[in-house]
Amino acid sequence: MRLILLGPPGAGKGTQSSRLEQKYGIPQLSTGDMLRAAVKAGTPIGLQAKAVMESGGLVSDEIVVGIIEGRIAEPDCAKGFILDGFPRTVAQAKALDAMLKRHHKELDAVIELVVDDQILLSRIENRAKETVAAGGAVRADDNPESFKKRLAQYHELTAPVSDYYRSVGELRTVDGMAAIDAVTAEIDAILGK
Ligand code: AMP
């Protein structure tokens, strides 16, 4: 099963992807996680991405498309994958189309988690507070200033990705403000499980 989860930062894509990963035995491919790992490891891509990520900006299409192209060619993606945080621009969506076509593969579903901005802002504040309380390190881009920029980028550049998949009749939407289990149930219903 090849699946895309769309939605703004803080919508719950990571949480739902982890559940889908366990249920279907296919990997969750989060470009955000991969980029954070590259930053931590100090790779050339990480060095390029660090500042733009911390400010809440978007890493170049070229870098993330290259990362995904390499990743989906790995053996654990043979049965499918869940894309979380990619595509984030229409150019990335078109690059993904071309990539899948070259490999004679198709998407099974594109699901958008819909959540109001105000709810996202309070979720992100709570995520930071909970992380601190648990003794963890808050993500460098989970401060209100960077988060607002990430949200603005989402509306400007990523919302059109939903329109793109809607225009080709592939987009399904789910109320991401419902309880976590209810969101999972809706996704399962869409996937027919
Ligand atoms: P995320 O963990 O998905 O919220 O991603 C964290 C940050 O990584 C984003 O704010 C961007 O700076 C960068 N990033 C992740 N995925 C992409 C993508 N598909 N295109 C461009 N930048 C990305």
UniProtKB/TrEMBL annotation:
Sequence segments annotated as region (NMP): 30-59
Enzyme class: transferase
Pfam families (UniProt xref): ADK (PF00406)
Molecular function GO terms recorded: AMP kinase activity
Entries under InterPro entries matching the protein: Adenyl_kin_sub (IPR006259), Adenylat/UMP-CMP_kin (IPR000850), Adenylat_kinase_CS (IPR033690), P-loop_NTPase (IPR027417)
Residues that bind ATP: 10-15, 127, 178
Role according to the record: Catalyzes the reversible transfer of the terminal phosphate group between ATP and AMP. Plays an important role in cellular energy homeostasis and in adenine nucleotide metabolism.
Subunit structure of this chain's protein: Monomer.
The name this protein goes by in its record: Adenylate kinase
The species this protein was found in: Candidatus Rhodoblastus alkanivorans
UniProt gene name: adk
